[in-house]
């Protein structure tokens, strides 16, 4: 046997070459692709309601669009059939979690430790009240860490939650196909 012969190199893609076309479907996974119209309505509706919250906040000189509400708008407008997107969960979840946040703030003050415990307790309260809405846990965190005045924050939170739900209803009625929102109110 001769050792002069070296094994042929495999045809490996070079880093500068584009990935094979079959890689992109693998990255997409097996989740069903939404219809293009559904994406357009969902993104448009969520963006419109968030812009509305910013406009209201600018008019009132108060921040109305907070991260948990942006997440709520995304859920209501992208997956309106889920239980956590229903009005009971959106409005009730945010208000219950606000109460937990203010209770934690009053009892233990503002700290990341209190915020973490408040989020966990808020999840427990929502679960017991059958108002599952994961973004609302972040409402408790925002309250503990930012210490907003409850006299202005709670009415704005309630109004913003109702506005998100009403926008979801309006968008659902505006399109002919797709999941109707809400599936139930209470």
- What is the distance, rounded to the nearest whole angstrom, between the alpha carbons of the first and last residues? 82 Å
Number of helices: 7
Taking pLDDT < 50 over at least 5 consecutive residues as the criterion, the unreliable ranges are none
Give the overall average pLDDT: 87
How would you classify the helix and strand content by structural class?
Answer: mainly alpha
Tell me the major beta sheet.
none
Give, in order, the helices and strands: HHHHHHH
Describe the structure.
With 186 residues, this protein is mainly alpha-helical. The chain has 7 helices and no strands. The protein has helices at 23-28, 36-60, 67-78, 87-108, 112-129, 134-146, 150-174. Helix 2 runs antiparallel to helix 7, helix 3 runs parallel beside helix 7 and helix 5 (112-129) packs antiparallel against helix 6 (134-146). The radius of gyration is 23 Å and the shape is globular. The N and C termini lie far apart (82 Å).
């Amino acid at each position: 046997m001769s050792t002069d012969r070296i094994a042929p190199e495999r045809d490996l893609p070079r880093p500068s070459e584009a990935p094979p076309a079959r890689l992109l479907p693998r990255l997409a996974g097996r989740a069903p692709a939404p219809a293009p119209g559904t994406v357009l309505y969902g993104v448009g509706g969520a963006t419109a309601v968030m812009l509305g919250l910013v406009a209201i906040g600018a008019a009132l000189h108060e921040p109305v669009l907070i991260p948990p509400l942006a997440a709520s708008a995304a859920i209501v407008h992208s997956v309106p059939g889920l239980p956590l997107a229903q009005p009971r969960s959106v409005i009730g979840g945010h208000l219950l979690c606000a109460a937990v946040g203010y209770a934690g703030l009053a009892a233990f003050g503002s700290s990341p430790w209190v915020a973490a415990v408040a989020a966990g307790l808020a999840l427990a309260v929502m679960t017991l009240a059958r108002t599952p809405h994961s973004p609302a846990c972040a409402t408790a965190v925002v309250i503990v860490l930012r210490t907003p005045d409850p006299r202005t924050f709670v009415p704005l939170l309630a109004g913003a939650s109702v506005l998100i739900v009403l926008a979801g209803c309006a968008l659902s009625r505006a399109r002919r196909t797709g999941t109707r929102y809400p599936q139930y109110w209470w």
